[in-house]
Amino acid sequence: MSLSITLTINGTPRTVELDDPRVTLLDLLRERLDLTGTKKGCDRGQCGACTILLDGRRVNSCLALALSHDGAEILTIEGLADGEACHPIQAAFIAHDAFQCGFCTPGQIMSALGLIQEGSAGDDPERVREGMSGNLCRCGAYRGITEAVLEAQQRMSRDAR
Ligand code: FES
Ligand code: FES
């Protein structure tokens, strides 16, 4: 059985034939579309490494069936930079040494973008930590991550004025 779905991924419509209705968005992105920036950690919704924005909301792509999201808009880490220019969240992660091995970083950055767009964290480090608590970092770079999210949030709100 072959099933066809169309997704808009990083602004580009992509039609994909699924040969298995159980394929997740994570596996579709990594294995069919060569978008390997989205990482597979636990593959069971516990680490956040696979975070993407799905119709503007952050989700664990390892738990999302591709077939259930025909027509959706997806943003992955590959869609953030503007040409050679880093996205403000990427720049803030670099400025604050908010990573070590980097494995969790794409998921952290996508989750940060979702958090900032939700507008619920404000400038309170504790609320940022809580809002980012679904994204684990085995290297323990949490301090830099929190600082980076706070700085990116300030810059993005300044840029939006
Ligand atoms: Fe999806 Fe861990 S790989 S939450
Ligand atoms: Fe290594 Fe987070 S930087 S897991």
TrEMBL record:
Name of the featured protein: Xanthine dehydrogenase YagT iron-sulfur-binding subunit
Keyword annotations from UniProtKB, A to Z: 2Fe-2S, Iron, Iron-sulfur, Metal-binding, Oxidoreductase
A Pfam family assignment: Fer2
Residue ranges annotated for the 2Fe-2S ferredoxin-type domain, each copy included: 3-80
Lineage, opening ranks: Bacteria, Pseudomonadati, Pseudomonadota, Alphaproteobacteria, Acetobacterales
Gene Ontology molecular function: any one: 2 iron, 2 sulfur cluster binding
SUPFAM superfamilies hit by this protein: 2Fe-2S ferredoxin-like, CO dehydrogenase ISP C-domain like
Matching PANTHER family: OXIDOREDUCTASE WITH IRON-SULFUR SUBUNIT (PTHR45331:SF2), OXIDOREDUCTASE, IRON-SULPHUR BINDING SUBUNIT-RELATED-RELATED (PTHR45331)
InterPro entries reported in the protein's UniProt record: 2Fe-2S-bd, 2Fe-2S-bd_dom_sf, 2Fe-2S_ferredoxin-like_sf, 2Fe-2S_ferredoxin-type, 2Fe2S_fd_BS, Aldehyde_Oxdr_Iron-Sulfur, Beta-grasp_dom_sf
Provenance organism: Belnapia rosea
